[in-house]
Design goal:
It is a multi-pass membrane protein. By secondary structure, the protein is an all-alpha fold. Helix content is about 70%, strand content about 0%. The chain is built from 15 helices and two strands.
């Protein structure tokens, strides 16, 4: 006769409940796996770079360059992570960076010095984010359409301001920040700004009510509304945050290039979205990770650097990025179907 194991009973003879792991522990475990996987990919890329171009890739100046380049798009990606986590999208980030950079480097703006350039870049970024937020949150426009319109408008205005010319920065205090003399313990100032933005973004998403509301809106906007969250206001704040990050990134780009151009921020929207997705942020919303997004930025920047050192054409880089995005989305779909 086949015997079946009886369920455990407590002291009263009743069936004791079977202990289950809390859902948040499972989510943390999956997040740890994603983070370790991304670290593994980044380590593999470093090994590849060290093998193919050991003298150039592992040079301190080149590593500093990689981190510096990652800082600009990285700040944009932090803002994009919040937007995607809420179930939205922002296709205008690159154009906003361009508009902010050229508006902040006009002759009239540079007359106000360091503070004038910084304030203008941030103000233009926040202003564009405000327009996006109002159109989406209170105007009822689909994020894809609203931000696509902003992309076209901001690019057009940036071209009109510059008349297709490069605007050279003449303020010494800004130019000095891009020099090696400004490095602190070998770390460029742009990298330090990126680190500060990353830490603030992580705390905001993971340790505040604002972050919990962002995740709730992305998971189920109607349920969030019934729970007492002002969904429209939350979405407005998120696009303001994205615009703020674009303004900061524009100022970093001004320091890095020493100029303002209407072509700045080209394809930043692609890089930011791709970095967030491969980092583990769900494109459908409801889950976001700043740590993963930062690792995604570092992976893409390292790939670009390795390709450049090996004299591979830019079209090959774009094909590789596209393949990585497709692979990341397929992994996300498979992970979602098994949880």
């Amino acid at each position: 006769m086949t015997q079946h194991a009886s369920p455990p009973r407590d002291g009263t003879g009743k069936t004791a409940p079977v202990a289950e792991l809390p859902a948040w522990r499972g989510m943390m475990a999956r997040a740890d796996v994603r983070t370790l996987s991304l670290l593994g990919v980044l380590a593999a890329l470093i090994v590849i770079g060290g093998i193919t171009k050991p003298d150039e890739f592992l040079d301190t100046r080149n590593l500093q360059l990689v981190l510096t380049q990652a800082s600009v798009i990285g700040v944009v990606t932090v803002g994009m992570t919040f937007v995607i986590t809420s179930g939205g999208i922002d296709l205008s980030v690159g154009a906003i960076v361009a508009l902010s950079s050229v508006w902040a480097t006009t002759v009239a703006t540079q007359e106000y010095g360091f503070g004038g350039v910084l304030f203008t870049a941030v103000l233009v970024g926040v202003g564009c984010g405000l327009v996006n937020g109002l159109l989406i949150a209170y105007g009822g426009m689909v994020p894809f359409i609203a931000t696509l319109a902003m992309l076209a408008s901001a690019r057009g205005l940036a071209l009109q301001i510059t008349d297709g010319k490069t605007q050279i920065v003449t303020i010494p205090s800004i130019l000095d920040l891009g020099e090696r003399d400004a490095y602190v313990l070998g770390v460029p100032p742009l990298v330090m700004v990126f680190a500060v933005v990353t830490v603030i973004g992580w705390l905001l998403l993971n340790r505040t009510t604002f972050g919990r509301r962002t995740v709730a809106v992305g998971g189920n906007a109607e349920a969030a509304r019934l729970a007492g969250i002002d969904v429209r206001r939350q979405r407005l704040y998120l696009y303001l945050l994205s615009g703020l990050c674009c303004g900061i990134a524009a100022f970093l780009l001004i320091i890095l290039s020493g100029s303002g151009q209407n072509t700045n921020g080209n394809l930043y929207e692609l890089d930011a979205i791709a970095a967030a997705i491969i980092g583990g942020t769900l494109l459908s919303g409801g889950r976001g990770t700043i740590t993963g997004s930062v690792l995604g930025v570092l992976i893409f920047t390292t790939i670009t650097n390795i390709f450049a050192l090996n004299n591979l054409q830019s079209d090959v880089q774009q094909i590789a990025k596209g393949a990585i995005i497709v692979a990341a989305v397929l992994v996300q779909r498979r992970t979602a179907s098994t949880t």
